[in-house]
Amino acid sequence: MCNTSKPYRDYADYLAERFQTKMQKLTVNAGFTCPNRDGTVGTGGCTYCNNQSFSPSLGDATLSVTEQLNRGKEFFARKYPTMRYIAYFQSYTNTHGSITHLLNLYNEALAVEDIDGLIIGTRPDCINKELLKSLAEINQRKRVIIEYGAESANDATLRLINRCHSWQCTVDSVAMTREFGLDVGLHFILGLPGETAEMMMHTVDQINVVKPDTVKFHQLQIIRGTRLAEQISRNEVTVKLFTIDEYLDLCAEIVRRIDPSIAIERFTSSSPDTLLISPRWGLKNYEFTNLLRNKLTLHK
Ligand code: SF4
Question: What's the predicted TM-score (pTM) here?
């Protein structure tokens, strides 16, 4: 149920329903690659994706899963000694490997003290029943949540950004994941090339049909070294880069339109300054959320 003091159901509401105590996500980089780069489903990757992030010098993939989680725990435990944790396999495509390898990594994470669950970020075309069956077994003792990068419900957009999967693929994967009793989160980007406000609202309507447990949005960011940055500099594609006020209006419209049973985790994301071309809002995620909540409360 929606907390009436909040203008929408947020991620804290979702976590509070699933876990007994306050939870913190700890990001894990388990050294995965991406099927949209290595030729499994495509090459070149999504046009907005930063090639440099595939450099082995970035991230903590040199550390084991256990080491990464223990480091993360140390950081939070100083301030919140009773905190419990969820291991978040976030970087790249965290189901892209053999089942044995995947289960070894997930079980390693769950063996770390104080880890009560897993969030596995992946593409909707990189999941199968055999893996879901094993995850459903794990879910009996520790919660497993699958997070799919859907990005848009418009196939024309998905083609333009070289996602190499369709919206129907997302719909099917969500249904299959649900069959195994697992919670599902979806991720979307607002302002993708060629997308109008109507197209973004169409995506919201489709989210309402699929009804994931959680949803994340973020503004399109133009990142140095990406194909998208190149395409824009050559005028091959046009993108709508929102001002903060325009983006607040868009997000307020989404909140009004989205099924209130779906928890919204976030609306923005911020790439490192050295990589970000635009938009450069200089706002942290929580600062944007506060602005949005004020706007929604004022215009109730
Ligand atoms: S955005 Fe995700 S799916 Fe697309 S190329 Fe990058 S890692 Fe792969």
Answer: 0.94
pLDDT in tens, the chain (300 residues): 444 578 999 999 999 999 999 999 999 999 999 999 999 999 999 999 985 544 443 347 789 999 999 999 999 999 999 999 999 999 899 999 999 999 999 999 999 999 999 999 999 999 999 999 999 999 999 999 999 999 999 999 999 999 999 999 999 999 999 999 999 999 999 999 999 999 999 999 999 999 999 999 999 999 999 999 999 999 999 898 899 999 999 999 999 999 999 999 999 998 888 999 999 999 999 999 999 999 998 766
Atom of ligand 1 nearest to the CA of 50: 6
Cα separation, 24 vs 78, in Å, equals 13
First to last CA, the chain: 19
Nearest CA to ligand 1 atom 6: 49
**Phi then psi dihedrals of residue 89, to 5 deg:** -80, 95
Using CA atoms, how far apart are residues 289 and 294, in angstroms rounded to an integer? 9
Tell me if 150 CB under 6 Å of ligand 1: no
Q: If you ran DSSP here, which 8-state letter would residue 195 be given?
A: -
Domain boundaries, the chain: 11-298
Nearest CA to ligand 1 atom 4: 46
Domain covering 11-298: architecture: Alpha-Beta Barrel (3.20)
Ligand 1 midpoint to CA 153 (Å):
17
Q: Measuring CA to CA, which residue among 223, 222, 224 is closest to residue 240?
A: 222
Closest CA relative to residue 184, chosen from 211, 208, 159: 211
Q: Which amino acid is at 28?
A: V
Say how many C-beta atoms besides its own lie within 10 A of residue 300's C-beta: 5
